[in-house]
Amino acid sequence: MTRRLLLVALLAAGTAGAADVDWASAQLVTVQLIDDRFVPEKLSFKRGVPYRLRLENRGRETHEFTAPEFFRMVTARNPEVLEQAGNEVLVPPKEHKELYFVADKPGRYALTCADHEWDDMKGEITVD
Question: Which of 9, 22, 70, 76 is geometrically suited to a Cys-Cys bond with 109, CB 3.0 to 4.6 A?
Answer without folding.
Answer: 70
